[in-house]
Structures are given as structure tokens and as C-alpha cells.
Amino acid sequence: RLHATDVTSSSFRLLWPKLLSQETGYYTLEYAPAADLARKRTQQLSGAHTSLVLSDLAPETTYEVALIPESNVHYFPPQTTRVTTLAEEISPVQVLISESGPRSFLVSWAPVPDSVVSYQVLYGPLPGNSVKVLEVDGRHNSTVVEHLAPNTTYLVTVTAVYRSGKEKSLSAKACTQEGERGQ
């Protein structure tokens, strides 16, 4: 049976039993997004093939795949399968610190892909190992970190938590302002 392995966000490998040989025919492979079969792509392969990697695919997309053995000896029915590519899991590309005051700053990040369930913002003073965590909804791209010590450098790490369970992180340093005199 035709089946897929090594599925990523942009590719997968098709495997199939040896139905033909170099001498007895060739395969026609057709594949298209299930939601848009008009964008069908076709490839011809020699009868010696039993696997092929399809790449340049769209993430989080279900593809209809048909392998048609074109034999000059026997009739083989087309083999079909459906394969869904994974979500594209990109780490936050930039983490920005702004609106810095003595006891708070704003952390913002980009991009904000649909496949992120939530963000975890970890922060703690440098040097040191006391780390606090803020959970932020996956639709948001910023949060205010409060109750900080003045005139202190913090390490801030933003971790994207994907539906698949994977996590990707990026860190930045932030400095709080000096406290106002007389406090």
C-alpha cells in the first residue's frame, strides 16, 4: 500500500510496494491539496522506484496523493493516500523590550503563528537563578512584566508552545531604570 513517512511541515516521503520493474512500466504520481484539487501536480517515475520525497508543500495542509502504475503487463489499480503536513513551527524571531521603568517593562515578540497555543515568558535577574514565568495566550504578542527591582538587568526568554507540543524559544536582556531619588 502507498503510505507516507518522515512528514514535516513542507515535505513527506512516499513509499509503495514494488509493483513494476524498469522493464514493465512506469508510475504516474498525482498530488494536490484536498481543498484545492485544481492545483494538481503530476510526476512520472520509472518502474524501478518504490519511494519518493515530495517537497515545497504548504504547512498544515492535507494532500490527496494517487500513484497510478502504468504497466504493459498487468492492470494495477491506482494506489491512493491522504497525507497532512505538520504545522510550521518557527521560533519567535524577535523579542523587543520597551517602556522600561524602575519596576516594569513591556516584552513583545513576533511573529505570532496560528499554531501557537500559548507563550511562556520567563524572566529573572542576572546574575542569579530565580526565574518567574508568565503564561500568555497564543493570540497575544506582548505582556508587561511588573514588580521588578530597579537598576537591574533581567534575562527574558519567550517560549512559543505549539499545538504539537513542541517548544521554541528566544531570549533578550532587559534593564530596569534606576529608582527615583527619595523612595
UniProtKB/TrEMBL annotation:
InterPro entries xrefs: ECM_Regulatory_Proteins, FN3_dom, FN3_sf, Ig-like_fold
Gene Ontology cellular-component annotations: extracellular region
Coiled coil, from the record: none
Pfam family membership, one: fn3
Primary localization: secreted
Keywords: Glycoprotein, Repeat, Secreted, Signal
Compartmental location: Secreted, Extracellular space
Domain of life, per lineage: Eukaryota
Signal peptide range in chain numbering: none
Residues covered by the Fibronectin type-III domain: 1-89, 91-179
Keyword Repeat: yes
Protein's recorded name: VWA1 protein
Native organism: Rhagologus leucostigma
